[in-house]
Amino acid sequence: MKMTAADVEHIARLARLELTPGEKELFAGQMDAILGYVEKLKGVNTEGIVPTSHAVPMENAFREDVVRPSIGLEKALANAPDRAGTFFAVPNVIE
User: Is the pTM for the entire model greater than 0.70?
Assistant: First the structure.
């Protein structure tokens, strides 16, 4: 499938992008090369290959959800640059 500048223009319109004519031609060539490579990958024999989601084996890294005592209010606010009562005080971001 050959990508044309018209195809790129259609995709750019869907993405709400404004492209110059030079960019359309450039991206058409780049997208055509990418799609050509994908077509080449379709020809690779993957018979007997188990699908993976990671390059290396992974196990569940989550720890068990156990209730533990918290560090306490004073310890949590000990290094706060500013505090307002029992809360972290931060500068206003909305005037």
Answer: no
